[in-house]
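User: Round two. Same drill as before: sequence, then structure, for each protein.

Assistant: Same drill it is. First protein:
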Amino acid sequence: MITALFSSVEAGLLYALMALGVYISFRILDFPDLTVDGSFVTGAAVASVLIVAGVNPFIASLAALGAGFFAGCMTGLLHTKGKINPLLSGILMMIALYSINLRIMDKPNVPLLQQETVMTIITKAFQRFDQALATVIPFVPKTWGIVVFGMLLVVIVKVVIDLFLKTEVGLALRAVGDNKKMIASFSGNTDRLTIMGLGLSNALVAFSGALIAQYSGFSDIGMGIGMIVIGLASVIIGEALFGAKTIVRATLAVIFGAIVYRIVITLALRVQFLETGDVKLITALIVILALVVPQMIAARAEKQRKARKRGVAVASTQADYESV
């Protein structure tokens, strides 16, 4: 059980990068970007092929980030210059990426189990501490170095995003998502900002895909199916549990949301009547609960507030009547 939860935290940290990318497109730009399902695989495919070819895994992961940025920019161009609906732009790019990813990998699956990856390098680097830690905490798995690496990476990416969104360009990007017409009226280049925002979003998604492929030991053409829903689930769960009043808090909530999502999935799959194939159904139920429950709580609180207000008004009227 502890090992399963530990693995959930490991995977949650790596998926948090993808969730941060979805947060940029979904919350900052208000753009329903379905490119994510394709760009996630693009990152995995680029990194896997380069690693198999002998390229350093860290450089291969950065190349995946660049490929994701390019894919996101293409979606942005379809929408801004091609005047295609945002949803349709993402769908078209996602479909195109399926064939492109097959071209990159030259087959549906690229195994990495015999290759040196970022995860094997990190695990080897922390091996010297394993024995010492095992004597203190016997139940800690030997891959705890991946958790440390994931935490450092996610914190660095979060801080960079927070700082970027407070710059002049970042504020303009946030304004485009809030009111594109207003930015256009101030002679702001909304097209360029939208393309850049989608590029950044998909760069993070592809980077996450590259790391997940190295964590899982393979890249597969079908590993991106439903990834946008997982990203949205992480964003919605994080915002519902931890709030999103400021950018710093919102990005932190997205990271915790991704971890909580993986833990919930792990616990749900331990229920006897649920199977691995039920993951998509569980994800859909989690998103529905995360969307509906906060609204029900808010509606109940509003109803109670109005009831208290009516009670105060009635008491005041009775007091006035008795005084007369």
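Second protein:
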Amino acid sequence: MKTAIKAALLLSALGLAACNNPDRFGDGSGVTDPGGAYGSGYGDGSVSQGNISDPNSPAYFQKTIGDMVHFVVDQSTLTPEATQILTQQAQWLTSHPNYTAVIEGHADEQGTREYNLALGARRASSVQSFLISQGVSGNRLRTVSYGKERPIAVCSAPECYAQNRRAVTVIAQGAGS
């Protein structure tokens, strides 16, 4: 009986260890997540970001160009600052055709879940339309709305709300289809 329990514990531990392999789907070099939505971002070993000083790297895209734009309350209209950032994103994406992008739309915690999902979708769509208007092929872009489900600032203050009203362009290697 004790042997069966020990064997079950050993198998459970091995099973859990197998689930904790961040590189189980490959070498990790094909995944870039500058927005940090799929991990902790830099330094977690699962993301290939490159060097921030290399203009061809995802790290440069995220930190120098900026992968995020913000919106006014209940709006999906691009601000002049957002337009400036997205123009640079479009130039980078146009000159790096081996990358695709997922545009994440987010909202702050105000409003219902359904309303915020719709608002996040409009924000992501607004960014996608702008990038397409700047020459980025539509088959390289897709959108997703997280509504208020993935805040970057967790508090009920206007400063936090402002940070969470955003669209994030998450790039990945691989040509669009």
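The two ends are 56 Å apart (CA to CA).

User: Perfect.
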